[in-house]
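Quick one - first record:
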Amino acid sequence: MANPFFQNHGPFKIDEILKFISIQSNVDSNYEIHDVKDLVTSTEKDLTFFHNKNYAKLASKTKASYCLTLNNLVSYLPSSCEPIVVENVLLSIAEITKRFYPSSVTDDFDNDVFEIENTDYKKKIKFGKNVLIGKNVSIGKNCKIGHNSIIERNVIIGDDCSIGSNVILRNSFIKNNVSILDGAIIGKKGFGFFPNKNNNIRYPHIGIVIIEDNCEIGCGATIDRGSMSNTIIGKNTYIDNQVHIAHNNKIGNNCIIAGQVGFAGSSTLGDNIMIGGQAGISGHLKIGNNVHIGGGSGVINDIPDNSRIMGYPATNLRNFLKGKKWYTKQQS
């Protein structure tokens, strides 16, 4: 499927792409690459990347024709996928992605917005004062938008949604019956860059934010759009105030996330998860269904289904309480 919000400047011939990153390889110089995608969504017309053994299972099933990877990971790729070995996979794919999607690197404010009174929505929805609407925006029926909110370019909002005051939306797909409370910022680029002594290099974010039906997003919450894939909030998930969700996270259905929880990037959470306030979830983790995470916990490992965990590093709740009891006894 074509990227709905960022213009693809491809296709490029594969040898031209390799010149972008100063790589020489024995490839079919006339083969055209139409897009850059992750391991799962890639097709035979796409270039993908594989940089960590944790993704070996996904790599073995990729349908991409070419893959940027490391020498020690080549054996995990299927025979249909030609490996291109580079020194730094993420830096290389970032440079290539910028050529396909040059507008995805910067996130300047949208200078092409209109006052809502000057759009067709003035008679279709309820809105407060100083509401601005950008291009390529669609808003469904029975929606409300509060004062000083900006629906920037590339936003689709479903029916029966409530957008609070001082909200900023961009590059997002908001489905039906979603409430986004005051001060939330959704769809900005994520915190993705490569440290460099002279100039930190920004990673392009060509994904979007998808918020499924019947969700609530709390005041001051921030949800970053995806880099190569999308950031997704599942159906009937409630997110409290001042929660941060970084790029590429996938949060399941019927989850409850209390205030000031922070998510690093690219973790996947199952359904029916409850997370207490001020917990931290590290990146690239898999958290199962029906998991309860106590407030203030630090989650740094995968968590299986039906677990109850707490502490730092987060551990089984029974073990945590046992350790706390031992510590208290030692202090007495």
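second record:
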Amino acid sequence: MLGMAQRTARKSGTAATRADRKSENAAARATRAIWSGTISFGLVSIPVRLYTATQSHDVHFHLLHKRDGVRLQNVRWCPKDEKAVPWDEVVRGFEYAKGQYVPISEEDLEHLPVKTIHTVDISEFVKLEEVDPIYYDKAYYLAPEETGAKAFVLLRQALEQTGRAAVAKVAIRDKESLCLVRPYQDVLSLETMLYANEIRSTKDIAVDGAGVSSKEIEMAVSLIENLSGSFDPQRYHDEYQAALKKLIDAKVAGAPLPAPPSERGEKIVDLMEALRASVEATRKKSSDRAEGKAPATRTRAISSRRPKSA
């Protein structure tokens, strides 16, 4: 019979193999085009391919039966036949009346009378700073087909020189999206965007000035200036995911769980006192930055404003 250490090693090895396999599959998907068509503006058409620009490193959980720890299955159940249905027998359908559905196939979608199915249709060029980031949804990369390389590079360099981005529309995965095309490194980035009617109003949650004094504003500005620097995404890491993986490793090995964070200090009720203490504490960082020293890494817990689309 294997000892605890051997069983743990085997589990860890299996988990590592699965993680490596997932990483390889993610890399393969990243280099596979998910859409091909053209970029169209004026009378110019550039044949391109579209690739996903981001990948998730989140830890994913499965649903288990609490009593015996067995993973639960998601079953596509047909109540008429009273049996599970395999994927190759599943089609999409639209409910046009209560309980009445019309099936829609990929071939049907090809008959949609819109050119954005195969075209990134550019309507105008705007300054990037005019677009509020709240409209951004999901990022993709555009790369040229071999026959369109010269025109593609010409567009990218023209956008760089003018400091503009292209507003366009494109249909991806059964939805026509507003999108923004801009230069990114040696390719073009295509960011799908939300439409104006998809952005909720802030009317019901807006606040007034709340009696903020000019001295408090001055102190807050000083704090912001002390903590200001150039954005470097490499300085920021997902500490939650790293800690979660350590906790999982400890559970698998039957080891003690990591100690939870210590309790925070008491809340400071006096806002001015809190601002003054913060400015004083960050003054050295501001001084170091002015002397050319590398700023210390700062981490913040930021909630996602909404779930990312698939």
